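Quarterly update from the structural biology core.
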Amino acid sequence: MDPTAFKAPQAGRVIRMPQGYVAFVPAPLPPALEYGADLVRALSRADAALSELSGLGRHLPNPHLLIAPYVRREAVLSSRIEGTKATLSDLLRDEMPGTPVPRKTSDVGEVRNYVVALEHGIRRLRTLPLSLKLVRELHARLMKGVRGGHATPGEFRRSQNWIGPPGCTLANATYVPPPPDAMRRALSDWERFLRERDRFPDLVQCALLHEQFEAIHPFHDGNGRVGRLLIPLFLIERGRLSQPLLYLSAYIERTRRTYYDLLQRVRTDGDWNGWLHYFLVGVGETAEQAVKQARGLEALRERYRRRFARKPKALALVDQLFVNPYISVARAAEILKVSNPTARQAVGFLQKEGLLKEISGRAWGRLYLAEPILKAIENPPPFDFPAGRA
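Predicted structure, tokenized:
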């Protein structure tokens, strides 16, 4: 890490360690901010889009049917930023007992853990405020039994870590977070700012907290995923999201270079406004996209419900196909609480109607896919604006 690159004392300070390397200690939040016209426009658009998405979440007739695929898509995209290759189809097929998954088990396990951690966080917010305790709980579930799981899941690091290209060392790392003692003080300051209310717009506070968490980098592995998990959890706790429908991983993956560059520019140049603008544009675009996709999925579901209104067993399967578009006869029997032959008839009816397609090619244990539903989940509407513009 080049200490001369860090030219903004208001963002933090570079310290030289006895071992000879240098590390960065971020200054406590909040920084001094200037709300220029571009930033105000981005904040206004993001606030409006988030409010529309939250309102939609309150009025969905059965929000679980749409939230489940949202959560799984976010888990795939957030994990992909960290190098996993598992797809949404891999994750959904992994939920079907006895179904082989093409991707290696470790990748699917990492994505599965993300779902578990997010669902745990949402439940815990009913009894526990967002805090360092909950952060550790999220990390413990995220890292359980997967790559990096040896690095004390659920515990903050006790030794130095660093960020840079593969094979780099402390001497030539791109960024070296604060050493453990300074890290603990920084986390305490971070949590203190987390508890503040009504001093900043919620989205501005969320953006500041996310950047600072990444700068502190309190775990040996999983920091990026935990940092992204905290965004919807913060907005749910603050009452800005009624349902977990907003996830920035698709936006971050699409603009990955810009994302990392802006995080670094906060540390080196104190460019908080550049980071805030990027974050707010992402929230606005992502919330607008989520509204369109949720409405599209709900409209598709209603078309199938009208089409199969006189077939109650088929109708019950349609709802579950929006949770997971893959299904087997055994799974259908479990959902419908009927015998295998009866379930086979319901699946066969949906296959004849063109909703289900047999994809396993097996004579037994056949697997079926509702391709139109999977496509609607996998392919949300495109972002309206190029990255970084409001």
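The two ends are 33 Å apart (CA to CA).
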